[in-house]
Design goal:
By secondary structure, the chain is of the alpha/beta class. It has four domains: about 190 residues, Rossmann fold; about 160 residues, no CATH class; about 120 residues, no CATH class; about 220 residues, no CATH class. It is built from 29 helices and 30 strands. Strands 11-12-2-1-13-14-16-15 form an eight-stranded mixed β-sheet, sandwiched between helices. It has a five-stranded mixed β-sheet with strand order 26-27-28-29-30. It has a four-stranded antiparallel β-sheet with strand order 9-8-7-10. The longest helix has 23 residues.
């Protein structure tokens, strides 16, 4: 496998803003941290950073703010506009002035603002006054809205109310034919254009009233004489209104990320004038000011953004034909694009509407494709990575970020890059964040030199062997059952590192309908296409992970991607990852006494890298178990006085004495210390007690740390109350341990089963000594009076 690389957590959540639901959800700070490690100040001054996809404006912005000259290729005109706005947005005064000019312009005998507002008039259900609705609510394919939302200025009634017949009549005034709809289509594809039918299909996600309102506004903008800054500000407001005008705003509101151009069962029709007004604050929240140029003009050496209007392949063609162009690219930093038929199709519409048919033309081809699968995406990424490999010198570092990691996306990225000749140097994936970080490097030699010819059957065998070996190695160092995504990614990384995908394969012999000739039996030497390799890899890993692959599976449902997998033969495996993390964290806290969260988190990420990256929740629960947060600095944590090793040793001695006293009260004799055994009058051991000061329970419960494991139904771990939440966390996330313990999740099917390891807190032992109900026959019930419960910590994202 490739060397495990530390996960880069970032330092703040993904930046909200216009169109964020279509953009990769990437934390801030990743680019800055990665560039600091891979590019010296001299390299930043002399060279360039390339973003071959331009899918994340915030990533481009961050790289430029780090002092780099960033060259971005962006074929999508809307994506280019978002990058321009991120780099240098108009001042708020320009937005206000632009909207004011639009507002006071005339539409017949009315002011434009008055006319657009009147499109959303309704009557107050309380006082009957005419009010402007903030939104109407529709059911898919219904002829009229079923509800409206407003705030009445006359009687202060506000909220959602049933729609009226008058609301239906107003909505039906607008039809799916007319000048405004024709204008919307004409700006993208004229009547004789073969893409006309596809533009009509895309337009179906707009209600007729929204089309009328949008093109009344867009037509008026075209007639206004605005200074460039105000024109750009008004374009930004209208672009956001184009998005808010679609029927793709689900009711009830959901934090969704639309990928297909589909109308939800219930949706919201937004008031477009209010959308323009709210857009001022949405856009004005962007406060950058960076140099931005259009290729081939370069930004200053101190940093900035250079936009190339086209695909990476087009940039490579220009560089090859123009020998005077010199682009010393020192690093590649990019968010890998996820197929998004909704955003790409709408971008083609919006570009034509706001900037004309010529602006949409290079991107208009997306209108023809209704669905994108991962095979198609593999081919697309392979093409882009091949152009990248041909453009760059050897040993250029590349970081590809996937903000919504799933098996198909990861497979498309890693297969496409490997077949294009990029060398995978590591990957990191953090559970619970859906963020994957892929590290590549351009190759030192042409990949054709390393290809060998093997049979298709041999290639399939090697794929499965590489995946199986990598998964087994991962599970042994992970030490605990792993979810499907981690298992799959481990196998995928193993396949890529094996080099099998770069070998030519011999297809099976061809046979003729008649008697075969000598020529017809000759095997054909071919190189599998990227989509073929995607399918081969996916099937190979799925077969390996299946039950036949030799794994135990916990918590499975009918879906093949649910549950957790573990080795049937776990000999030689490490302790469970949460126990490893706890030990590392406590050692550091004891040595330093206090620490800052970010420093501790980064130390943990360096120690547990790659696919072993610990979840944020685990780090937080561990910290809260041992340390207290500073009241003056929320980023600083200090080891509690009672957690000092000397204090905990005293606690262990005390609780051991108390357990001996309890045994005497219940007429048991005791033997040993760890475990402390309780024996009856016949010398038979009735209970095994394990006093501990930590929450490191994995090897103990699994019987790996004892020469002769005790029976689980009579084994009791005694621990500080401050460890209870950490133990509960570990049981929730490790199905093996949970099955071996009596503690069950409330409401689970086996909640009433009480056979297995139990947990008793120090304070409970003290309480039992003082209990007037203490009897042998009641002892088991008394042990269960203070069960473990899990309380999720107040999560910090980084």
């Amino acid at each position: 496998m490739s060397s495990a690389v530390p996960f880069i957590p970032g330092d703040s959540p993904p930046q909200p803003g216009p169109f964020s639901r279509y953009l990769p959800p990437l934390p801030q700070g990743i680019a800055k941290a990665w560039l600091a490690e891979h590019l010296s100040p001299e390299a930043r001054h002399e060279g360039w950073v390339l973003d071959p996809f331009g899918a994340s404006p915030s990533l481009v912005l961050e790289a430029a703010q780090a002092g780099c000259r960033v060259l971005v290729t962006a074929n999508n005109p809307v994506a280019r506009f978002l990058i321009e706005m991120a780099a240098n947005p108009p001042a708020k005064a320009d937005f206000l002035a632009a909207l004011a000019e639009l507002s006071t312009s005339s539409r017949g005998e009315e002011r434009m603002e008055q006319h657009i507002r009147s499109l959303y008039n309704t009557e107050c259900a309380v006082c009957g006054a005419t009010v402007m609705a903030e939104a109407f609510f529709w059911e898919r394919q219904a002829p009229a809205p079923y509800a409206r939302q407003y705030q009445c200025t006359s009687c202060n009634a506000k909220g959602e109310f049933p729609a009226t017949n008058q609301d239906a009549a107003r909505a039906q005034q607008f039809t799916t034919v007319g000048l405004h709809r024709a204008r919307a289509l004409e700006r993208v594809a004229p009547p004789n254009d073969p893409d006309r039918i596809h533009a009509e299909e895309a337009l179906s996600v707009y209600l007729p009233r929204s089309v009328y309102a949008l093109f009344t506004l867009i037509n008026k903008m075209d007639g206004l004489r605005l200074p460039p800054a105000r024109r750009r500000a008004l374009e930004a407001l209208l672009l956001r209104a184009c998005d808010l005008a679609t029927t793709m705003w689900q009711v009830p509101t959901a934090r969704e990320r639309p990928r297909q151009l589909t109308i939800p069962p219930r949706f919201r029709e937004n008031n477009l004038w209010l959308s323009l007004e709210s857009g001022i604050d949405a856009w004005a929240s962007l406060s950058s000011s960076l140099p931005l140029t259009i290729y081939p003009e370069a930004p200053p050496d101190s940093g900035g953004i250079c936009l190339f209007e086209g695909r990476l392949r087009d940039l490579c063609d220009q560089i090859r034909t123009d020998k005077e162009i010199s682009l010393p690219i020192k690093a590649v930093l990019t968010a890998l694009p996820r197929p998004n038929q909704a955003f790409w199709t709408l971008s083609a519409l919006w570009a034509g509407w706001l900037w004309g048919r010529e602006a949409a033309a290079p991107f208009k081809g997306v209108l023809r494709r209704r669905r994108y699968d991962w095979n198609w995406h593999t081919a697309g990424l392979f093409s882009a990575f091949s152009s990248l490999a041909g453009l760059l010198p050897p040993d250029v570092p590349i970081l590809g970020l996937i903000g919504e990691a799933e098996t198909g996306f990861l497979t498309a990225a890693l297969v496409g890059a490997d077949m294009a000749g990029l060398n995978l140097t590591g990957l990191a994936l953090r559970s619970g964040t859906e963020l994957a970080q892929l590290h590549w490097q351009t190759a030192r030699q042409d990949r054709q030199d390393r290809q060998e010819t093997i049979s298709r059957d041999e290639a399939d065998r090697l794929l499965r062997q590489a995946a199986a070996n990598a998964i087994e190695q991962f599970l042994k160092i992970f030490g605990a059952p792993a979810g499907y995504l981690l298992m799959y990614t481990a196998g995928l990384e193993g396949i890529v590192q094996s080099g099998v995908l770069r070998r030519r394969a011999l297809q099976p012999p061809k046979t003729a309908p008649e008697l075969p000739s000598e020529e017809s039996l000759i095997q054909e030497e071919v190189e599998a296409s990227p989509p073929d390799q995607f399918s081969y890899v996916q099937n190979a890993i799925r077969d390996v992970i299946s039950f036949r692959g030799g794994y135990l599976r916990y918590g499975a449902t009918d879906s093949p991607e649910t549950g957790f997998w573990w080795l049937r033969s776990p000999e030689g495996s490490a302790p469970p990852l949460p126990d490893q993390v706890e030990k590392f964290l406590v050692t550091r806290l004891v040595r330093q006494g206090k620490c800052r969260f970010f420093e501790l988190s980064r130390a943990l990420l360096r120690e547990f890298a790659g696919l072993r990256t610990p979840p944020v929740e685990l780090i937080q629960v561990c910290l809260e178990s041992y340390a207290a947060q500073s009241p003056t600095d929320p980023d600083e944590w200090e080891l509690r006085p009672q957690e000092i090793p000397a204090a905990r040793r005293q606690d262990l001695e005390m609780v051991t004495r108390q357990l001996v006293q309890l045994a005497e009260l219940l007429e048991y004799t005791t033997e040993g210390k760890f475990p402390l055994k309780w024996l009856d009058a016949h010398g038979n051991t009735q209970y095994w007690f394990y006093p501990i000061a930590s929450a490191v329970i994995g090897d103990l419960i699994l019987g790996k740390s004892l020469p002769s494991p005790s029976p689980g139904e009579r084994s009791i771990i005694v621990l500080p109350g401050s460890r209870a939440n950490l133990v509960a966390y570990k049981l929730r996330h490790d199905s093996r341990l949970r099955q071996l313990c009596a503690t069950r999740e409330a409401g689970s099917p086996d909640a009433e089963q009480r056979h297995g390891w139990r947990f008793v807190k120090y304070r409970q032992v003290r309480s039992l000594l003082e209990s007037p109900l203490l009897r042998r026959e009641k002892f088991d019930d008394l042990l269960n009076l203070d069960p473990l419960t899990y309380a999720a910590p107040q999560m910090r994202l980084f």
